[in-house]
Design a protein that fits this description.
eight-stranded antiparallel barrel; 2 helices; TTHA0802/YceI-like_sf
Length: 181
């Protein structure tokens, strides 16, 4: 009986080491939907949360829409009230998997990876695949990348009055510095 208990604790300990989780609450998301000759349409959110399971490559990201900061306060107000309707749809999320992920092969040299999963924004979910880079230094894994999204894919209406001032495709950049939990 004593051997079984020791083996059980040993097995649980090995499982915990092999399936470590990394997380952040200070991830950075930036988006830009600017059109040449018009005012910049860009914002940044420095409080994005993310978690990565180093055993499986599963990754989840969550950001509050009201966390995006614009250079112009009125633009921020319109973004929250008229476009993403932050009171009704307060967050955006991504749940996916880093393809062919092997934590033991990570180093300080960034490695190109693909991340596939579901992006949920404004109450709509769309499957996306993102090109990203991943690196590891000490107890920190950093995931960076970018992708394009269309407002229409998420039922975000751009009024005709400003449609020429906002790009059809929104460029999104992310930087997720994840530390061991």
């Amino acid at each position: 009986m004593k051997k079984q208990i020791i083996l059980l604790f040993l097995f649980v300990g090995i499982f915990q080491v092999s399936a470590q989780k990394y997380a952040t609450k200070t991830g950075n998301l930036k988006f830009e939907a600017s059109v040449p000759s018009f005012e910049e349409v860009a914002a940044e959110n420095k409080n994005t949360s993310a978690i990565l399971d180093s055993g499986t490559g599963d990754i989840a990201v969550l950001t509050l829409m009201k966390g995006f900061r614009f250079k112009v306060a009125l633009m921020e107000e319109h973004f929250n009230e008229n476009y993403v309707e932050s009171d009704k749809f307060p967050k955006a999320s991504f749940k996916g998997k880093i393809e062919d992920f092997d934590a033991s092969k990570l180093s300080s040299a960034a490695k190109a990876v693909k991340i596939s999963g579901d992006l949920t924004l404004h109450g709509k979910t769309k499957k996306i695949t993102v090109n990203a880079k991943i690196s590891k230094s000490d107890d920190k894994i950093t995931v960076t990348g970018s992708f394009e999204a269309k407002a229409e894919d998420f039922a975000i209406e751009i009024p005709k009055l400003v449609s020429k001032k906002v790009a059809d495709k929104v460029n999104v950049n992310f930087n997720l510095p994840l530390t061991k939990m």
